[in-house]
Structure formats: C-alpha cells, structure tokens
Amino acid sequence: MLATHKPASSGKGAQEKPQLGVLLMVAAVLLTVVFLGVMGHQYFAPSSPSESQILGMDKSSFPGWVNDAAMQCKGDMSKLSPDLQQKIAAQYKDGGRTELMASYALQTH
Questions:
Q1: Full-prediction pTM beyond 0.90?
Q2: Is 97 within 8 Å of 44 (Cβ atoms)?
C-alpha cells in the first residue's frame, strides 16, 4: 500500500496565496459589475432634447396639459403618475419623453 504524505506547509505563506487569488477574483467581478452598470446607465438613461429640437419648437407646440405635466415633473416623465405617462406616450411616437423635456426647457428658459 502506498502511503500518501502531505507536504508540510511552511505555514502562513501557503495559506495566503489562495486567499489572495480569491480576493483578486472578487475585485475583478465587482469592477466588471460597476463598469457594466455605468455603461448601462449611459445607454439606457433618457437623453435631453438637442438644441435643434428645442429651437424647432415653441411652447405652443404642445397641448396645455402637456406643458402643465412638464412643469409638474420638471421634465422627468418617471415622476408622473402612470395614467399621465400612458396619456403622454399615446400622444407622441417616441413615448413623449423628448417632448416633455423640450416643453419643460422651453418654459424655464
């Protein structure tokens, strides 16, 4: 029968290497998650209307209730009630986010 002998570890140094590897893996995963979160936010966050979009419009380009909603939510559609969000989305092709932000920008500048 062969006897299996475990090599005597030199104590602290042999135990630190696996822990260091695990810490590096955890750090790499966390950095990846943070990076993907930042990129996702930049890609999916609503964008503001461009100056050319705003210049082509004036306050009268929007119904009064849209102007009122824009002032109520300060151009951020997510702050409106779900019913009002649906009403605005039905009014405009792109869901109304751009129009709501443009209406708010026109009224505050």
A1: no
A2: no
